[in-house]
């Protein structure tokens, strides 16, 4: 007998909850903000809107289904199952944070603050949750397959991301490495920079776009479902030992970019999740390219 679907509600701590964690009570948090010319009322209102959205989404789960909740900070320890329907209640970035831990489960994005969030990935309102849950499990349900990027290290460590993967120094130092196409027999160009960013069409609405604009936007940005990535080297430094001839490019399916570390430590993380990063050191290499896995976003 097959298991009934499980609705997994993904959320994160609100700004109000973070203030309480820091200051202890509502009154102390209110005093802290008021002493700086700000009011806690707007923060508290957004907190209540988010809690209300979570309550209504939870109430919309069919009685025959199972349900669970997971907070953003616990995503790397949560075990998603094949029969799960993942409901992200929050901001666009929370969908990206969740994507790397999934393997084909349908994702529904619920916007808790319409008008404040762009709504690129959280496209729906909590009042539509019941219909969206049915659509997520129905045959022929509408969904987009969003391209993801992956990094695979030579020691088999693997990292997935929906928006972008960043490789660079852990602080404000300079990363040293060699960079070139995967499969090239030459060792690649020696570079010194503040890091390398490889992004998808979904990431083209964020960090990737800012770098693209800085470079003049000569390459067309990919769409979220396009099997194409763009990559940029940030602040490459020319010197007698390092070059700047390879600072931007694109990758199609089956193509890869290889980076070989030539400094003490380089971190690799995706979608801003620095707490869940790969760490590479002298001589290690990593390949970046389009992931076989994609994010199935219910539309």
From TrEMBL:
Membrane-crossing residue ranges in chain numbering: none
InterPro entries (alphabetical): ATP-NAD_kinase_N (IPR017438), ATP-NAD_kinase_PpnK-typ_C (IPR017437), NAD/diacylglycerol_kinase_sf (IPR016064)
SUPFAM superfamilies tied to this protein: NAD kinase/diacylglycerol kinase-like
Signal peptide start and end residues: none
Name of the protein in its database record: Inorganic polyphosphate kinase
Taxonomy, superkingdom: Bacteria
């Amino acid at each position: 007998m097959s298991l009934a679907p499980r609705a997994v509600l993904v959320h994160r701590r609100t700004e109000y909850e973070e203030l309480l964690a820091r200051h202890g009570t509502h009154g102390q948090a209110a005093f802290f903000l008021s002493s700086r010319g700000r009011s806690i009322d707007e923060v508290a209102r957004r907190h209540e809107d988010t809690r209300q959205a979570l309550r209504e989404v939870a109430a919309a789960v069919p009685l025959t289904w199972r349900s669970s909740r997971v907070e953003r900070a616990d995503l790397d320890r949560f075990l998603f199952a094949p029969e799960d329907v993942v409901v992200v209640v929050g901001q666009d970035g929370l969908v990206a944070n969740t994507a790397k831990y999934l393997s084909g489960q349908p994702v529904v994005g619920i916007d808790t603050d319409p008008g404040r969030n762009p709504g690129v990935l959280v496209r729906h309102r909590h009042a539509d949750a019941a219909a969206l849950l049915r659509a997520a499990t129905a045959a022929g349900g509408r969904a987009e397959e969003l391209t993801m990027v992956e990094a695979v290290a030579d020691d088999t460590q693997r990292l997935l991301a929906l928006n972008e993967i960043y490789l660079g120094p852990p602080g404000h130092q300079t990363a040293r490495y060699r960079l070139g196409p995967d499969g090239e027999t030459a060792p690649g160009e020696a570079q010194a920079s503040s890091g390398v960013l490889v992004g998808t069409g979904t990431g083209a609405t964020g960090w990737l776009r800012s770098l693209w604009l800085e470079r003049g936007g000569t390459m067309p940005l990919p769409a979220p479902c396009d099997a194409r990535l763009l990559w940029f080297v940030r602040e490459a430094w020319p010197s007698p030992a390092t070059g700047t001839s390879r600072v931007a490019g694109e990758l199609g399916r089956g193509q890869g970019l290889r980076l070989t570390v030539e400094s003490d430590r380089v971190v690799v993380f995706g979608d801003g999740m620095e707490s869940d990063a790969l760490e590479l050191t002298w001589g290690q290499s990593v390949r970046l390219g389009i992931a076989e896995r994609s994010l199935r976003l219910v539309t």
